[in-house]
Design a protein that fits this description.
This protein is mainly β and about 200 residues long. About 15% of the residues lie in helices and about 50% in strands. Strand 3 and strand 4 form a beta hairpin.
Length: about 200
């Protein structure tokens, strides 16, 4: 099951920015708590880095490299790297400011709703107060949604229905802005979910 968490990491990259994000890195660790993650996913990490601007892209975009490792029951170890284009607007503070003001966003690849604010405490014990809590839904089968789910649900062969993502966004967190990300959906009639936390690397 390798498609739920990578899609989550990529789609949540609409967060804070305001300056050139090239070179920024972020590290995410799977939370194995059954309240957040389906038991068949035993472990996993994702490392994300903004590698370069795509100056000829329309609309303007950045290339984001995503490296992942995961251990999944019945599937085994999963490891790889993907490069995806992320629209530049999602790195700007104006995007989130507009989402706060209007309450919702409707785009070609996903829709979003601002669900207010909440504190987030991560696996490493660090507290991030007053995060923007964002719901992402109606996620299309596109670059924004595919790769996160590919990491933890290995669904090259399958589809997740009703994929939804909740992201806690905090100013100053590199690349994604997301300190807590939780994806859920339905696979072959079963509810599946995966959650991961941002962590500072040594």
């Amino acid at each position: 099951m390798v498609r739920l968490l990578l899609s989550l990491a990529l789609i949540s990259s609409f967060a804070f920015g305001g300056f050139d994000p090239v070179g920024q890195k972020a590290h995410y660790v799977l939370d194995k708590d059954p309240k957040r993650t389906t038991s068949m996913i035993k472990s996993g990490t994702i490392d994300v880095m903004v590698t370069k601007p795509l100056l000829d892209a329309a609309p303007p975009a950045y290339e984001v490299s995503v490296k992942y490792k995961a251990k999944i029951s019945l599937v085994g170890d999963q490891e790889g790297e993907q490069a995806k284009a992320i629209d530049a607007e999602f790195f700007t503070p104006e995007f989130l400011e507009k989402l706060r003001k209007e309450g919702s966003y409707i785009g070609p690849n996903f829709k979003a709703k601002h669900q207010g604010y909440a504190d987030a405490k991560n696996l490493d014990g660090k507290l991030y107060p007053h995060c923007d809590k964002i719901l992402l839904y109606d996620i299309k089968d596109s670059g924004y949604a595919d790769e996160f789910t590919r990491v933890f649900f290995d669904l090259d062969r399958f589809d997740i229905e009703n994929l939804q993502i909740v992201a806690h966004i905090y100013a100053g967190v590199p690349v994604l802005g997301a300190v807590k990300i939780d994806a859920s959906g339905i696979y072959q009639g079963m509810n599946v979910k995966a959650g991961g936390d941002f962590q500072l690397t040594p």
